[in-house]
Design a protein that fits this description.
By secondary structure, the protein is an alpha+beta fold. About 40% of the residues lie in helices and about 25% in strands.
């Protein structure tokens, strides 16, 4: 995530809740379209905000917000190369974010800014790792939508020559094939052990490429099979970076599928380490204790709740609601808490977390 955008998002998150709070999210590509067309769309959005505010809250505060929004729209930067904008206005706060992702127009009027759209606006990162294996060496590449670079190389000399075996060990092998298979496994164990540090540092979807024989050995010995998105067969040793990138392009084409598989892999790994909370009440409890590293939420999932005996306990709200403990949507509150405490948030398709009651929290470990 762009550090500057991250700072601006935190600024919006930290804004004082003060009704009316208006959020306007909309496409904004002045370099791709006519300025008059954009101006028309902005005027239409402004008219909608003005109409709804005067219908819902016809008072001085609404008039103040309307004047501030009009001034912001008038002073927008039409020389930007961004794809969309997010405008946040309340009687005590105003902010414009120029974003690098495509969005659908959305206007929200509430007592606080729409936290879900903040998350949607910052989650467009297409990064992955590629582990390239052959019988002599291995390489790890970091790729994204615009770059592809080598970040680590490892020689296989440690394990593929009998000179590394203690005296007398090789003589125990009557078959050269068995010796080569054993040395291959030793070499791949060495590579697999090194993946611990890489995966902890980058926490990205992992692809592994090599010959069918090498991949077969790797699948048998690896401790990181759960982190692998796909295995790519082929002998690409010595291939140029552009050529290698072209070879793997078909495997990363469906990024949405890759991303969701990676998230489920992370969820399963956390469950195995007993670092997973799921269901709204458990997730709320752990998030309030600042333990959330990655929150997974099904799109459109909401949870009206009431506070229990402490801030760490909630219950599903039942009508009639207690106005002193009622929480309109506990999911939004959890999202904000996780982000405030250094965690991250991802939305997934509806039904993907049905076995986890629609929401899950991976804890720090």
């Amino acid at each position: 995530m762009n550090p500057d955008l991250s700072t601006e998002i935190r600024e919006v998150m930290g804004a004082v809740h003060y009704r009316p709070a208006v959020s306007v999210i909309m496409p904004f590509e002045p370099k791709m379209g006519l300025k008059t067309e954009l101006a028309h769309d902005l005027a239409r959005a402004f008219d909608k905000v003005e109409r709804e505010l005067m219908d819902q809250l016809p008072n001085e505060l609404s008039l103040l917000v309307i004047r501030k929004l009009k001034k912001i729209i008038k002073n927008l930067n039409f020389n930007t190369y961004k794809k969309s904008i997010a405008i946040y206005v309340s009687p005590v706060f105003e902010k414009v974010l120029y974003l690098d992702i495509a969005v659908e127009e959305k206007i929200i009027i509430d007592e606080s800014f729409e936290i879900r759209d903040l998350v949607y606006s910052k989650k467009e990162i297409h990064k992955y790792l590629l582990l390239l294996l052959n019988s002599k060496e291995s390489h790890i590449y970091l790729g994204n939508s615009s770059t592809f670079i080598k970040i680590l190389s490892n020689s296989s000399g440690l394990a593929l020559s009998s000179e590394y075996d203690p005296p007398g060990v090789v003589s125990n092998f009557s078959d050269v094939h068995d010796r080569k298979e054993t040395e291959m496994n030793k070499y791949l164990h060495h590579i697999d052990n090194g993946l611990n540090i890489i995966l902890k540092s980058y926490q990205l979807p992992l692809f592994v490429s090599g010959t069918e024989r090498t991949l077969g050995h790797f699948k048998k010995i690896t401790k990181h099979g759960g982190a692998v998105i796909d295995y790519i067969p082929g002998n690409y040793a010595g291939m140029s970076l552009p050529g290698l990138r072209e070879k793997i392009a078909p495997f990363i084409k469906n990024w949405k599928k890759i991303k969701q598989k990676d998230l489920i892999n992370q969820l399963d790994d956390a469950a195995g380490k007993r670092k997973l909370a799921f269901g709204m009440r458990e997730v709320w409890h752990e998030a309030m204790r600042k333990r959330g590293r990655l929150l997974l939420v099904e799109k459109n999932y909401v949870y009206a709740a009431e506070l229990g005996s402490s801030d760490e306990i909630i219950y599903k709200a039942i009508e009639p609601y207690n106005k002193f403990s009622y929480i309109k949507d506990a999911v939004d509150d959890v999202i904000e808490k996780v982000l405030e405490n250094g965690g991250d948030v991802e939305f997934v398709d509806e039904g993907l977390l049905k076995d986890h009651h629609h929401i899950a929290l991976i804890q720090f470990y």
